[in-house]
Amino acid sequence: MINKQGIWFLTLTSLALVLSVYYITMPNELLLTNNSNYESTKKENKVDKVNNVDIKESDIITSMRVELDNERTTIRNELQGKLNDSKLTVDEKNEVYEDLRYLSNIASIEETLEQKLKQEFKLSGFVKIDNDIVDVVVKSSNHDKSLAVNIMKSLQEEFTEKKYISVSFKE
Predict the structure, then answer these.
(1) Alpha carbon distance 122, 120 (integer Å)
(2) Domain-embedded: residue 106
(3) Buried/exposed code over 33-47 (b: 16+ C-beta within 10 A; e: otherwise)
């Protein structure tokens, strides 16, 4: 049985997580202090210009993170909508709540694994966990099999059960 202190902790942690995701994904237009300046610069930028965008591999890792965050935010919003649905039974709401907790736990584990990559191997990377599958994308020009094996062993130490870990390298 969950006590009141545990419920408050989970509630506040979930709130902090939702607010941080909202702040990160908030458009830059909301951060501008003077909307009239924004409107005039927006109209000036609508002139027929062709923008060339160069995507670097580090941007791919960033885009993978953003895509995963967007995907999980969508799932989280759907689950929170179900929690607010008065037609669901208590057991169904408990399942939805457990799914929300699972999403938060997975995000926390992924962040821990990314920090471990930085600390142990001095590499930046992206980690995505989907059930028993752990996908790791590492930013490195060295595509060494032994490095990949060492990364897999190191990340497997964080789990009690066996996971399928795949490592890919991006320059």
Answers:
(1) 6
(2) yes
(3) eeeeeeeeeeeeeee
Token digits of residue 147: 């490095």
**137: helix, strand or coil:** strand
Statement: residue 1 has pLDDT above 90? no
Q: What distances in angstroms separate CA 101 from CA 55, 88, 98, 123, one per listed residue?
A: 34, 18, 5, 29
Residue 21 has pLDDT above 50, yes or no: yes
- What's the average model confidence in pLDDT over 96-101? 92
Domain of residue 108: give its range.
4-15+57-170
Mean pLDDT, rounded, of the chain: 82
CATH number at residue 129: 1.10.287.4300
Say if 153 falls within a structural domain: yes
Calpha distance 43→41 (Å, rounded): 5
For the chain, the domain total comes to: 1
Q: Is residue 23 part of a domain?
A: no
Q: Could you give the angle at the alpha carbon of 103 between the alpha carbons of 165 and 5, nearest 5°?
A: 130
Q: Is the pTM of this model over 0.70?
A: no
pLDDT band of residue 13 (cuts 50, 70, 90) is confident
Helices 90-116 and 4-25, axial angle in degrees (round to 10): 60
User: Could you tell me if residue 141 is inside a domain?
Assistant: yes
